[in-house]
Amino acid sequence: MSDKKPEPWPKERFERWYREHPVIPSRDYVKTLVPRIKALGEREGIELEKYGEATYTTVSETVEGGTSRINRVTHELYRLLIGDFSQEKPVYIVAGGTHGYEKGGPLAALKFAEEEASRYADRFNIVIYLCLSPGPYEKELRFTEGRIDVNRDAFLDKAQSQEMQALASSVKELHQRLLGGDPGRKFAAAIDLHETPFMDIAIDKENAEVGGETFELEIFPKGMFLIAFDEDLELANKIIQNVRREGHHVVDDDTLYGSPNHDGVLLMSEMGPVKGRVRQLFKQFTTASFTTEYCDEQLTDQTPDAERVEPQMAAIRGMFSDR
Ligand SMILES: [Zn+2]
């Protein structure tokens, strides 16, 4: 065994990394998510807006002879506006699919839009970003093209990834439209839905090889936890307590990734420097902003969708609940 560290990847390998992964049919963005999104746009009281596009270079196999062809694929990025958007009602944001492989987020955001959001529309204005990273979603990848982690990317104006660029300008535009761009006025809260699944073990290994960030997965957490800014602890508690009340496991280890666990809540001040998260982007426009993490070492695409979706739905409901 050599002690030598692996050579970091050459630039060219980062560039071809994305296109070499195939689209997984059960996750095909255009075939499985877009029809549901478009159907929501037909409903009364729901406004479907395209806020951008993401274009990916990908490889498709031709049937005869098994040769491969390089294609450019463009996916439309969508958000839903649910409610009358009158000024008296607070605005809440729900986002899924920051990390494409974490399927529970987009599926929960969609299900919430399809089955529950309209019930809250008499009291709240709700904005739902259904799937921030459609390319990584359909290939079950954490990273987007160039092996960029959308949730570590810069914002507002210096983002490298097209997904973060589109999201940042879209939230900014929404703030301008609804609140006149006044920095003293903010939306009520945002929640970005994430998972820590089985695949993180392999990703962590590849990260080490690439010379990037490594996770601390010696103790794989189990259940839901929430990351919150310190001043948002009250709403954070309401969210995580609702997850528990609905019967889902909340992570009960004393510490998580080296930070104290406050009954299912990790506080930003105790996490050390954290850059480029979608929750930080939202926080520039919202009073409170959260990230959910539903963790399970057994979580794969073979896991029934409901197991991944229901804890996230409970967190979303917690954000709106009166208790
Ligand atoms: Zn994630």
Bound molecules: zinc ion
Kindly state the mean pLDDT as a whole number? 93
Tell me the overall shape.
Answer: globular
CATH class division = Alpha Beta
Low-confidence stretches: none
Radius of gyration: 19 Å
Number of domains: 1
CATH architecture: 3-Layer(aba) Sandwich
Q: Structural class, from secondary structure content?
A: alpha/beta
CATH superfamily: Zn peptidases
Number of strands: 10
First CA to last CA: what distance? 57 Å
- Strands in their spatial order, largest beta sheet: 1-2-4-3-5-10-6-9
Helical run tally? 10
List the helices and strands and how they pair.
Blueprint: H1 11-17, H2 29-41, E1 46-61, E2 68-82, E3 91-96, H3 104-115, H4 117-120, E4 125-129, H5 134-139, H6 162-179, E5 187-196, H7 199-210, E6 223-228, H8 233-245, E7 255-256, E8 259-260, E9 265-267, H9 278-283, E10 286-295, H10 305-320
Parallel strand pairs: 3-4, 3-5, 5-10, 6-9
Antiparallel strand pairs: 1-2, 2-4, 6-10, 7-8
Helix pairs in contact: 3-10, 8-10
The protein binds zinc ion.
Structure notes:
This protein has helices spanning 11-17, 29-41, 104-115, 117-120, 134-139, 162-179, 199-210, 233-245, 278-283, 305-320, and strands at 46-61, 68-82, 91-96, 125-129, 187-196, 223-228, 255-256, 259-260, 265-267, 286-295. By secondary structure, it is α/β, with parallel strands linked by helices. The chain has one domain (25-53, 76-320): Zn peptidases (Aminopeptidase, 3-Layer(aba) Sandwich), CATH 3.40.630.10. The strands form two sheets. Strands 1-2-4-3-5-10-6-9 form an eight-stranded mixed sheet, sandwiched between helices. A two-stranded antiparallel sheet has the order 7-8. Helix 3 crosses helix 10 and helix 8 (233-245) crosses helix 10 (305-320). 43% of the residues are buried. The model has no long low-confidence stretch (mean pLDDT 93). Zinc ion binds at residues 98-99, 102, 151, 194.
